[in-house]
């Protein structure tokens, strides 16, 4: 054991104490802020990981309050037994919390089940140590707590490295954090228990700085993980509203867009239309050239619609070989022009499939959302567009019709 001594004049001692207290203030203040933030994450986002992190930070605070004597000096000056005898309990608590957070943060149960079992075993050992200490055992618990603190410096960086290499990006921050912890702890132990360096208690100060950086890095990792969760959630939502074959929106997307449209119409009173498209004799295309060819035609319709429609239009595959577009326009003539461009371009661009050029046509049915005060439903609106479409089919296909009152009228 080596101890460093400095002789100070009273003013220099006062100044040193002030600096020290400032340092402790920054350290405990930063940890407390991180605890509050992670508790907010845990409650607002219902994420267990963030709660484990908060508990781990609490155990880190307790660890350092005990180690640097601040706890005894200011928080529990009368609890002499706890201060003298509780060290190992606090170390073991820290070990258990660090393992719990890392297990969950690194998703070891699914990504590295064997390491997960190792972590769980170490946690059990830590728990057994706490019980043994409470029962009065000293020496073996002392050895156990030091052994576990050292084991942490290997197992957590190793597990972080493994899952990071396997593709869990944010595990990098855990690796960095725990390597820093490892260096700080190992230097403190070597300095305190051997005469290799004559650094006295200085490494303890650096270990505390390392501990702060470690928790900061873990916080960065946790934030990255939360961002990734949010991105995945958004992706899942957009996939739920997307048609897998064409990449257009699906029926659900149309329903959502319709709800938003109703709100927008109340504000700006601009007319809105639904344009329904149905391919002609599509069954024959499937029967003659195969389902793959049919799929290719559908995909090309998707690209054509996206090319012709504006970004603000909601282009969806309504089902099978039917497509529906929700669009705002000054008048019905503008929508008819859009429908005609789609119809003519589709008819004049056959789909190449192997050695065949598949000729095809489509019909368009247009319906205006008459009066927003009437609050028409999607189903009602689609029924109007469908009626116009039916008329187009009945009139010989490859044409566009507009639904007018009860009587759809032919325009092309
Ligand atoms: N390849 C392919 N075919 C599909 C898909 N969804 C629906 N179909 C086919 O689309 C065809 C639609 O046939 P019908 O409803 O008879 O319509 P149609 O042959 O286009 O006749 P009309 O609309 O009256 O001109 C059926 O054969 C469906 O199997 C799909 O995702 N891919």
Automatic annotation (TrEMBL):
It comes from Gilvimarinus gilvus. This is diguanylate cyclase. The chain crosses the membrane at residues 26-45, 52-76, 88-106, 118-135, 141-159, 171-192, 204-227. InterPro entries: 7TMR_DISM_rcpt_extracell_dom1, Diguanylate_Cyclase, GGDEF_dom, Nucleotide_cyclase, Rev_trsase/Diguanyl_cyclase. One of its GO terms (molecular function) is diguanylate cyclase activity. Residues 270-405 form the GGDEF domain. Keywords: Membrane, Nucleotidyltransferase, Transferase, Transmembrane, Transmembrane helix. PANTHER family: DIGUANYLATE CYCLASE DGCM-RELATED, REGULATORY COMPONENTS OF SENSORY TRANSDUCTION SYSTEM. It is an enzyme of class 2 (transferase). Its EC number is 2.7.7.65. CDD domains: GGDEF. SMART domains: GGDEF. It catalyses: 2 GTP = 3',3'-c-di-GMP + 2 diphosphate.
